Amino acid sequence: MRFTIFLLTMSAIAGLAAAQDSMTDAGAGWAPEFKMAGRQIITLAEAIPADKYGWRPGPGVRSVSEVLMHTASANYFFLRSMGVKAGEDLPKNPEKSMTVKADVVRWLKASFEAVEENYPKIDKQKAVKFLGHDSTCEGVLLRALAHANEHLGQMIAYARVNGVVPPWSK
Fold it and tell me: For the residues of 88-142, what is the DSSP string, one character each?
């Protein structure tokens, strides 16, 4: 229970810290918001020391590298859900197989770049099946943005617990 309260508190702090990033992209639309989330999570991934990539808040909870690889692989999953070929070379079981900081950061950057590059080409109103139900590409993109921000907040909490200050909030 205490750990849950701690994580909720850290998530609130994460929102405040994220607000201190260059806000030129805030409120400017989907693409700038996604770019800002990507920029922040990548900057944070680069700031966390390599020896902390195996840290996890408790048994059965994703480690730093697992959260970052989950985020990267999800970006590719969202693209594939909209019919975009991307991330085919992603290793099998990336959350478990990719744990070295340099590799994780490389995949994370590439995944955000892939979404940003493909965004203008995507027919936002195209009907797609997403997680077993009817949706549109716009709906999938909204989930991608929410997902990126969800894990940005999680990574801010992880970083703070490990004594890493998000670079944009210094």
Answer: TTPPSSHHHH--SHHHHHHHHHHHHHHHHHHGGGS-TT-EEEETTEEEEHHHHHH
Q: Please tell me the distance from the alpha carbon of residue 109 to that of residue 90, in angstroms, as a whole number.
A: 13
- Whole-prediction pTM value? 0.84
pLDDT, averaged across the chain: 88
What topology does CATH give the domain 2-169? Four Helix Bundle (Hemerythrin (Met), subunit A) (1.20.120)
Q: State the CB neighbour count (10 A cutoff) for residue 97.
A: 11
At 138, is the pLDDT very low, low, confident or very high (cuts 50, 70, 90)? very high
